[in-house]
Write a structure and sequence with these properties.
Helix content is about 50%, strand content about 15%. It is an alpha/beta fold. The protein has 2 domains: about 220 residues, NAD(P)-binding Rossmann-like Domain (Rossmann fold); about 35 residues, no CATH class. Helix 1 packs parallel to helix 2 and helix 1 packs across helix 8.
Length: about 260
């Protein structure tokens, strides 16, 4: 484990929580961010078990001041930032013609602008450490659908944002990549699959089988698989890899 610090947003559940716990094997300090402090306590306990020191920060990344506070608290406690993993950003799966301006703005406020502001705010510290950034997008960026238009559209914007940061990163010594997970079996995905199964009048197991077949994959992904990919992207082994949008989606046909 290196004497280094990583910030992980969206660490209260799902891929963010799993990534933070995985990164505790590689970083001595793990800063975990989510809107609700209570959701971070289990993550913090697992980080301690792995031998790293957690810093819990409850913050709503929709608020422009939140990244300023996150970076300030991190530097005050640990004095450095070596990696930033932007995961926060659930977007409503609403039809293109039903989605309100407020829903569009909320999706961009958290997943796009939250990641943008935090990366900008942490950039100087990342320059000093020659650090790494990951922005989490999604396989839907490759083929946005009208039935959930904002998800694919915002994910595509996150990919473009990561590429823009990576260009500056080449000059400043900061590595930036984006990760595009496909269907991963998080609690949020499980709730969606329950609705999917109900609308088809089948049980959850059969609904999952039908969903996998529809998307052209053999099974849903596991959060641990995406966490391992993120850990690689911020590791020394991936140092020459920058500006990449890395799909991990089981070969999802709808993302081609």
């Amino acid at each position: 484990m290196s004497a280094a610090t990583v910030i992980v947003t969206g660490a209260g559940r799902g891929i963010g929580r799993t990534a933070a716990i995985r990164l505790a094997r590689d970083f001595a300090q793990v800063v975990i961010v989510a809107r609700t402090a209570a959701n971070l306590e289990e993550t913090a306990a697992r980080i301690r078990e792995a031998g790293a020191e957690p810093l819990v920060i409850a913050a709503d990344l929709r608020q422009p001041i939140a990244p300023v506070r996150i970076v300030a608290l991190t530097l005050e406690r640990f004095g450095r930032i070596d990696a930033l993993v932007n995961v926060a950003g659930a977007v409503a799966p609403t039809d293109l013609f039903a989605m309100s301006d407020e829903e569009w703005e909320d999706g961009f406020a958290l997943k796009f602008h939250g990641a943008r502001r935090l990366t900008v705010q942490a950039w100087e510290a990342l320059k000093q450490s020659k650090g790494a950034v990951v922005l989490t997008s999604g396989a839907s960026a490759m083929a946005p659908k009208a039935s959930a238009a904002a998800i694919g559209t915002i994910n595509a914007a996150v990919n473009a944002l990561a590429k823009a940061f990576s260009e500056r990163g080449v000059v400043d010594g900061v590595q930036v990549n984006s990760v595009l997970p496909g269907p991963v079996l998080t609690d949020r995905r499980l709730a969606m699959l329950n609705k999917y199964a109900d609308t088809r009048g089948v049980g959850l197991e059969e609904g999952m089988r039908q969903f996998a077949a529809q998307t052209g994959i053999s099974r849903l992904g596991r959060p641990e698989e995406v966490a391992d990919l993120i850990a690689f992207l911020v590791s020394p082994a991936a140092r020459w890899m920058t500006g990449a949008a890395v799909r991990m989606d089981g070969g999802e046909a709808n993302a081609v």
